[in-house]
């Protein structure tokens, strides 16, 4: 299977970030916004090198944004608002040169 878009928004899903999703390396869009996911974003997210859109808003994710997000050089959109992330805006954000939103 070559899944490119996975949209799970607004389903009240709970628990940690589903690590199994990081093995779907063909993903271009991952939308988990509007659920009740919690805990940190796993470093394995860096495996999603084809990802263009990442929507994690309106969950309860915590901790720092993992450095591995900086490996997602194809990201054009990343929405992470309305979570409980800690720390400063990481420097790797500046390396995501395709980012528009």
- Radius of gyration, in Å, reads 12 Å
The CATH architecture is Alpha-Beta Horseshoe
* Residue share in β-strands: 15-25%
CATH class: Alpha Beta
The count of domains is 1
Strand arrangement in the largest pleated sheet = 1-3-5-7
In the CATH hierarchy, the third-tier topology is known as Leucine-rich repeat, LRR (right-handed beta-alpha superhelix)
Major pleated sheet:
4 strands, parallel
Amount of helix: under 10%
Class from helix and strand fractions? mainly beta
Mean pLDDT: 96
For the secondary structure, the number of strands is 8
Shape: globular
Topology order in helix (H) and strand (E) letters: EEEEEEEE
Query: What's the CATH H-level homologous superfamily?
Result: Ribonuclease Inhibitor
Number of helical stretches of at least 4 residues: 0
Can you offer a commentary on this structure?
The protein is mainly β and 101 residues long. 0% of the residues lie in helices and 25% in strands. It has one domain: Leucine-rich repeat, LRR (right-handed beta-alpha superhelix), CATH 3.80.10. It has strands at 5-7, 14-16, 29-31, 36-39, 53-55, 60-63, 77-79, 84-85. A four-stranded parallel sheet has the order 1-3-5-7, with no helix packed on it. The chain is globular and about 30 Å long.
